[in-house]
């Protein structure tokens, strides 16, 4: 098998539609999205050690919107694409940023996902038929910012397990395992 076949096979795995179970309702009430954690899981399954990413330049902070912006370069089997990512950060009562590190990480993951779309991996991957039904206007409503879920206490990005746990417990707010209030931990 030559290099191109390997690349094509890997891309086929990456581009396969996501199962329905991993789609989460968007916070704006319009449709669904796939949490970043699933993209990364898919990427690691399909590409293993054949992918890497590096951040390009320094993260840029937009104080007014409380956003951090990063650019990354993702390389899969020697081919690269750039992606841009955003993440909202939270501030404490004195206006100081909470968990800068996680905000940057979160934006970086968003940028990796953006780069993956240039490899042909779909945002909001529904099955191909379903996608055609989606109103094109909806996709303009900032899919990136809605598609990440971070702990409301520490800003850490939630893992797949943590998102699933919140779903199981029917908890409306996003908490990481560490900050999940004790009284909410048991299913009612
Ligand atoms: Zn937390």
TrEMBL record:
UniProt entry tagged with the keyword DNA damage: yes
Record InterPro entries: Rad52_fam, Rad52_Rad59_Rad22_sf
Pfam families: Rad52_Rad22
Keywords: DNA damage, DNA repair
GO biological process, alphabetically ordered: DNA recombination; double-strand break repair
Family under the similarity heading: Belongs to the RAD52 family.
Protein name: Uncharacterized protein
